[in-house]
From TrEMBL:
Residue numbers of 4-aspartylphosphate PTMs: 93
GO molecular function, one term: diguanylate cyclase activity
UniProt protein name: diguanylate cyclase
Organism placement in taxonomy: Bacteria, Pseudomonadati, Pseudomonadota, Gammaproteobacteria, Alteromonadales
Catalytic reaction(s) noted: 2 GTP = 3',3'-c-di-GMP + 2 diphosphate
Protein's organism: Pseudoalteromonas tunicata D2
Keyword hit for Chloroplast: no
Required cofactor(s): Mg(2+)
Domain GGDEF: 203-339
UniProt-listed PANTHER family: DIGUANYLATE CYCLASE DGCM-RELATED, REGULATORY COMPONENTS OF SENSORY TRANSDUCTION SYSTEM
InterPro entries attached to this UniProt entry: CheY-like_superfamily, Diguanylate_Cyclase, GGDEF_dom, Nucleotide_cyclase, Rev_trsase/Diguanyl_cyclase, Sig_transdc_resp-reg_receiver
Amino acid sequence: MEDNQIINQRNSTSHCFDSSLENEPFIMIDDTKDPFSLIGSEPEKILIVDDAKDNRTMLCELLMSQRKVILAKDGAQGLALATKHLPDLILLDVMMPGITGHQVIRSLKSDESTMHIPVIFISSKISADDEKYGLDLGAVDYISKPFHPAIVQARVKNVLREQRNKKLLEKLALVDSLTEIYNRRFYELDIRKVWNGCKRENKAISLALLDIDYFKSYNDEYGHLSGDEALRLVAKHIKNQLKRPHDIIARYGGEEFVIVLPDTNADDAKRILTDICQSIEQLKIPHESSVISHYVTISIGGATMIPKHEASHEELVKIVDEYLYQAKAQGRNRVCWQP
């Protein structure tokens, strides 16, 4: 396969990119934050790092069907592409000029962003001692040269299947099983990333806490199964109101939810949350034991802050909690936002 043929296949159903051939950035599909995309529809990404062009080409031809294959000609390039694209699997030549495969995997495993990526070593010299040394460094398998196509495909398939299962379990651990939105564990991870990102870019972050009004009396009146269904309906409705992919709702605990709106000023955030508050009552979920409406309603407290170096997201949460208390004290079914 000629170099230009490899590049041209980037626009076909197969995806192969040899970074040693051009400087144009490789466009990848953005990750989704939708908890329902547990496995994902985008092709899996494989990074092949080998100084021999013939080896890169052969492995690309074997593996590119329904996958994105990224090729690197040496260890330094491989490290840069691994950090940039975070592939699902790396095939790594052991013996390369400059940075060897052993040095590459040490760097990968010492970097928090790449340490989870499985690595299969490829080598023409595999003694028992060599294999043990590579496995001790963190490799998951070995492929010997010259390549046997069926063996290459089988080993890669096995590792990718294990990686898919691992990612699925990790994502399931971040989803609330009842409402099928994110859970508090995900929120705790997300708020730190969003806070730090807004701090770096000097942008506002808006945060809101929502509580279903008189939910205990709802459970007493209609039963816990109906209460569970009400939680699901409210969660699904609110999630559908958040239009941007980086806006998230998570179940904070019990009948309480949290919404994170990055890069959103106070006026816009209050408008979004006011619309949500009003639309919940318009769902007309019966709640005859409520003292403020015949239907399920919610109370919302919120605040907006541009993170400063001396501040933490916990301070924002405390402020938001105070305004949720005010929303309840003022009669519920309303939004109270920090001026």
